[in-house]
Every structure is written in C-alpha cells, then in structure tokens.
Amino acid sequence: MIDLSILPVYLTAVVALLLLPGPDMLLIASSSMSYGRRVGLFASLGNATSGIILTLLAAIGVSTLIAMSPLALKALHVLGGAYLLKMGWDCLRAEASAAPELDAGVTMARTFYQRALISNLLNPKALVFFVMFLPQFVSTNIDASSGEQMLALGLLLNVLGLTFNLVLVALVGSLGRSLLSNQRFRTYQHKFMGAIFILLALWMLSGFTL
Questions:
Q1: Which of 10, 19, 81, 93 has the most CB atoms less than 10 A away?
Q2: What is the DSSP letter of 181?
C-alpha cells in the first residue's frame, strides 16, 4: 500500500527526522540514563504506541479535524503542558533510591510507558506533524485509498522510530549502569528527571497562545 517509487524519498525523510533531537528523544535518553535500559525500553514502547494511535487518527481523518480546530489545539497544549508539569513536580518530590538498582522494577517501567504514551498523545505538535507529513507521500498511482497509504506510511515510520529508539536506549543505558552505581547520582536522579519533564512542559506550552 506504499508507492515504491517514492519509498526512497520517504525513507530518507524519516531517517533525517529521527536524527533530529526532539522531546521524544530527550525523554527516552534521560529515562534510560536515570533508571536503566528497562525503563528506556518501556518509554520507547509507550512512544511507539502513541505513534500508532496518531497514525490511525490521521488515517481516518480525526487528526485533521482536531488540527483545524484552534480551540482543540489550545486544549491539547494546556493539558499536555499541565501533565508534564505534574510529572516534573512528582519527580522533584520523590526520594532518592536507597539501593544501587541497575534496572528499575516493573512499576517504574510501567510508569514511564504511560508517561511517554500520554505526553505524546497530548502533544499537539505531534498530532499536527502526522497530519502534515504523511499526506505528502500519498500517491495517486497505486490502487489504494489515501487512508490505507497513510496507515502503511505511519506504521513504517513507527517501526523505524522504535528501532532507532531501542538503539538509543542500548547506548545511553550503558552510561546509566555506571551512573546508577553512584550514590551521589542516585541522590539527584529524580531531580534530573523532574527538570527534564518541566523543560518538556515549557517546550509544549511555548506553542500555546490565548
């Protein structure tokens, strides 16, 4: 359901986008460094899940309707920013780990899966990206509807994005293992993540205007 003649151009564009630093990369890298590879893996899966949901919404036209509504976009800006601010505040209030755990447990991994999922779904810039980017590669030269093509293109984008993020987790997680054995780092790891979430909230709210 993808026009093979435009596939090389699409793949080039996707790779270029993946290499650009963004809030998703920052969240996944910082969570891997602060809490280990397991948490980074689940954050990557949460990000991929949100990407699939946004792809489905774009394919059936819901994303376009939301993107065309200034009120809906403003609501997403406020909700997304408020959610990230709350996560940042919770991290700043959290106590340091007492033991040098090299990988966080299931609870922490599940928490970061949910955080990555929800923060990306509430990010209006991510929604607008799917609405604006995928249609550029819809072709009239194949026997497939625009929705089917956008679905295929979006799924390919998410597979490549997940692969890239898993490599990032493996690389940054190696640094995290050495840091997590350091008591001084564990004292400040929650504050570090809190600062990251607050920065992401400010980034998201920067696009909000009354």
A1: 81
A2: T
Per-residue pLDDT of the chain (210 residues; tens, 9 = 90+): 787 888 888 899 888 888 877 788 888 988 888 788 889 999 999 999 999 999 988 888 766 666 677 777 677 768 777 877 887 888 787 665 544 444 446 788 888 999 899 988 888 778 777 877 888 888 878 888 888 888 999 999 999 999 999 999 998 877 766 665 566 665 676 777 788 878 877 876 775 443
User: What's the CA gap between 84 and 115, in Å, rounded?
Assistant: 8
Q: What values do phi and psi take at 84, rounded to 5?
A: -65, -40
**Residue 67: both structure tokens together:** 């993107």
From residue 17, how far is each of 33, 129, 133, 137, 139 by CA, in Å?
A: 23, 11, 11, 15, 21
Please give the model's pTM, rounded to 2 decimal places.
0.75
Beta carbons of 34 and 176 less than 8 angstroms apart: yes
Residue 21 per-residue DSSP state: -
Distance of CA 66 to the CA centre of its chain: 19
**Domain residues of the chain, as ranges?**
7-15+22-205
Helix (H) or strand (E) holding 83: helix 70-93
